[in-house]
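hey so u asked for the seq, here:
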Amino acid sequence: MANRTSTQSLRSRVRYHFRGNAEGSTLRLSLGCLLDLELRRVGSGKRLTFGQTGEAKLSQWMADNARVCWVEHDEPWTLESELISQLDLPLNLDQNRHNAFHAQLKEIRARARQRARELPISA
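ran it, structure tokens below
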């Protein structure tokens, strides 16, 4: 995020990944698609989530399987590009086209979005 400023704190971003929904969290979107949860249009039909049941299943899966850690750094934005280029981070799509899983994950997410657009809006 060297050229983008986040208005959220690390705590709020992590909390949203664990408690939010697929519309606001690219991590939740990727994990839900990989877990074969059904992505649906909700509300006005512009938002895409896994619905209440799917989001609850995803939250439980994350509580059971996902872990978060971090290190403090005075200028963390200086590290992001370097870390993405050096580590195998298959779920990170931003700046990560070199990853072997990048194209496959993009395709899985695109198919899920297309299916969601073909289904009726969920309540």
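The helical segments are 10-19, 26-34, 51-65, 77-86, 102-118. The chain has a mean pLDDT of 90.
lmk if thats what u needed
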